[in-house]
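Example 4.3 (complexes with small molecules)
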Amino acid sequence: MNAVLETPTLESPDTGLLLDTSAVKSLFLGHMVQQNLFPYPKIREEERETLEMVLDSFDRFLAERKDSFAKWDDAAAQPEEFLQGLRDMGLFGLIIPEEYEGLGLSNAAYSRVLSQSSRHDSSSSLTIGAHSSIGMKGLLLFGTDEQKAQYLPRLASGEMIAAFCLTEAGAGSDAAALKTRAVRNDDGTWTLNGEKIWVTNGGLADFFTVFARTEGEAGKLSAFIVEKSWPGVAVGPTEHKMGIRASSTTTVSFADVILPAGALLGPEGKGFKVAMEVLNNGRTGLGGGAVGGMKACIELSSQYAKQRKAFGQNLSDFGLIKKKIARMTVDCFAAESVVWMVAHYIDSGHTDYSTEAAISKVFASEAMLRTANEAMQIAAGNGYMKEYPYERIVRDSRILTIFEGTSEILRLFIALSGMKDVGDSLKDMKAGVQGIFNNPIKGFGVLTDYTGRRLTQITSLGRDRIVANVPDSLQDEALVYEKYTLELARLTDVLLRRHGKHIIGKQLSMQRVADVAIDLFVGISVLSRVASMQADGSEKYEFAVTIAKLFTQDAKRRMNQNLRRLLKNEDEGTTSLCDYIVNEEAYPWDII
Ligand SMILES: Cc1cc2nc3c(=O)[nH]c(=O)nc-3n(C[C@H](O)[C@H](O)[C@H](O)COP(=O)(O)OP(=O)(O)OC[C@H]3O[C@@H](n4cnc5c(N)ncnc54)[C@H](O)[C@@H]3O)c2cc1C
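Answer. The structure with flavin-adenine dinucleotide bound is encoded below.
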């Protein structure tokens, strides 16, 4: 037992998931929550038909405009005819419930749609994605019935397009530092002042979810619905960006905008929670998009490698090219596996999936960057030319590790949220030791739980097993994840004992811990998926096993290195070198 599993667990009658138990936080305590990892989820039968219809029509619509994407990228805009087409296909209403005239798709199906569109064009995915994943997600999650009735039908039809306004010039990763302010007036209305930057869909939107500092409770944040038509709202010119250029990005400013009392979204003072919930819930949209981008790269690269000749052979005959295409495929399968695992958690009503969602975002976005780079490398000189799609794919994918949470911030989040429960269990133990004299039974209980866990880690007896869930051919791989789960728990424990609350300043250690958690959760998601493929008698099972083996071998090497370097590393040299360089503000050496 542990701090996570000790809390009452809520089991979903439909999926069997433990809805209040985080699979990843449990790994930090040495536990593999079988129910949340196996079997691999399936797409809901009742929405299969709608999903296939949407995929088919969106796919054809985008394929017909294949030659326009590069032009729109140059022009930094999507034409009205294109946006109208998206509206006509109902694409702004993908996740809006049917009662509000949307298509009511699940998160899993929605991410699958974005995956399909990203095979054609990232900017197209982003226009849809920023509207659904973040622009109006706050309304879906926190809106009152009245607010939903007022806006959702118009958002579903695309009559209103939505955007999410959190970032400011002085508040990016540190979103809570924002300065936009909403002051409540005597009549219950609010006056809003401030400026947001880099708002995706800014130039198209009529509906903004805006975060502002409100008075009371030490100036906490609150969320508001703001319509573009309200006096004082101004949208800046289109930003010219490196990639996703056809997607609209602008500033949005507010000068004495009067908001009706009913514009408050969610509880007053809970704006930060609203923002974080929206971002967590929306992460699989971005992950789905990244998976689609990778599929496009794999298609392009395999075709290119097959037809391009060098030294009298096809590129695909060369070992180094084979390795690239195989790795791109492993990355794509792994990202797909973890993104849909997380989408399933969200769809099942899970209440503690933020760590898993962060992992899916970090892994899928970084896998897309690697894949895009390799696709360009295979196409080499041609890849560098605008005539080919590769350079646009590289430019478009670069944003993925920056917006909706940078990779750095999300890694820190993954490590801290995982370690929190370990810290709590250490605190429990301390309290148990103190309490043993006052309340021996309580104290003893805490100690037995704790020592039981320690014993489990040390002896490896009775450890959580997943081998029974996977096919014979993947037993060794399952053992790898079992072993490293215990190692993660053991070393996190050591780290916390060593640094206590000062762990917060040990970012390089936290990054290693996060990377181990990422490899564990992604790897187990891959095994779970392959196990389900075998159970279903999938024809494509054989190479899925190869993928699981390749991923696990790499993950094992990475985990081993990361865990070893938690205790023995060169962090001091790294940080002091940086301090020196930043102080000099230059590279101070030369060879003359
Ligand atoms: C094209 C585009 C579209 C966007 N769309 C939207 C949108 O629709 N709505 C919206 O609200 N925002 C949007 N953003 C903003 C985006 O979410 C932010 O850019 C992002 O949160 C990072 O903030 P920043 O750029 O200010 O980086 P900073 O916060 O200045 O970070 C700079 C670097 O430092 C790192 N860093 C920061 N803090 C720490 C720390 N504590 N420890 C270690 N490293 C740290 C970061 O990871 C990053 O590498 C968009 C941005 C772009 C470029």
